[in-house]
Specification:
453 residues, alpha/beta, Aspartate Aminotransferase, domain 1, Aspartate Aminotransferase, domain 2, 2 domains, 11% strand, binds pyridoxal-5'-phosphate
Amino acid sequence: MSSYARKTYYRETQRQHSMQHQSISQRGRKAAQTVLRSDFEVYFEAVQNIYHPVDNSEGTFPLNVAENKLCWPILKDKLQSISRTNDIPDWVAGYTDAKGDFAFRQAIASFMKQHLTHRPIDPEHIATSAGATAVIEMTTQILCNSGDVAVFPAPSYPVYKQDIGNKSGVERYDLTTYRDFMQLINGPNLTIDHLEAARKDIEQQGKRFRLLVLTSPDNPTGKIYSLQHLKELATYCIEHQIHLIVNEIYGLSLIDTRHPGICKDYIDHQVFTSFAQVIQELQSDYLHLWYALSKDFGASGLRVGLVYSLNKTFLKGYNNYNAPHMVSNHTQWLFQMVFEDHDFLTEYIKTNQARLTASYVAFTSMLKSNSIPYVPASGSLFIWADFSRLLSESSQEAEDTLWLDVYKETGILLTPGQGFGHEGKGQFRIVYSCFPIEKLQVAIDRLDQYLVG
Ligand SMILES: Cc1ncc(COP(=O)(O)O)c(C=O)c1O
């Protein structure tokens, strides 16, 4: 190409680029530049080449996305049997309550009482949306002004940033509550002093501390908050008019911490208690709970999430704004049928927990034998592990290099540490529920070889 042609080509490309920019709003331009996750590019490459024992034995193990595939065959059978043996009711084709059809919410309330909250739940206090992401976005739309601050104890699920920020304009504040990885081992150490320090810092910046978001069991540490701890934090939040939301999306994905392979990792065998108990005891407009079927039921693609709250004005606003986020009526109907079968649910939850525990035990024993520290989890789909001894230096660059090296050498894609909001380098999240244990064992063996060197 001549230099004149090159210049003309360059000018034309620039013109087209700028026209494209002008064709959308400022919001749209921001959207075009905001990626959901930094690891998606490598992830989409990895899923093209996934491990199969016969067809692709050198294939990859993407263990970076929080998916639970351990019990899908069981749920799939149940959903297929419902579809085979029942007529689809006519109401599914029309509009229904924006918070979710009442019969669906009744079925959810009964499921929650029986299996999650162990307290009666009023279906009028539930609103559903298409997945936890939509629930998080809707909640921040209704509770917060743009520029308000939401506090997350670090490390915390990276995508909260986009969920609260993209549309609601709420800022994420990562609150460091520990210095050393080993301090995480005994569970969440968030104190009132930490909250006070954050409040002062946020107010000094002329902003409002509007939300405190906890995840229990936690993503990524798998730790759970005790009832007493939750009550203490809730009392502080109510006093300072801060909304406290506990995300229990992993509420039924619990590990048997008394399993002989891991029991020595735990000082006490904490049991999960739902925040619903605190909400009902303290009866405040500032307390809320999130839940979804994406993880405990391995149904992230079916898009069902919910918020439980006693705040009537919040629920009214939610109802008025939720139309773009509603769960498909057909999905509502299917899960209504699933939730009415408590025997199925009891068996499903038990099997899921047994499979999660088996995979967790297999993975952590390999880490232990290679002296890789990890946070002993009580639940979730994760192991939060410290690979810092493999770093050439304590820097982001060295962490990224190690993350890619593990992928290149073993085909295992871990969740990068960046975005979780903590300070240490070399910490990665392992999702052990993406493959059944027979396949996961191959990944465990590969990582073992890598670590042995
Ligand atoms: C803590 C937490 N909240 C929300 C989500 C998003 O869930 P959903 O797929 O239901 O939108 C995830 C997914 O990883 C999560 O870990």
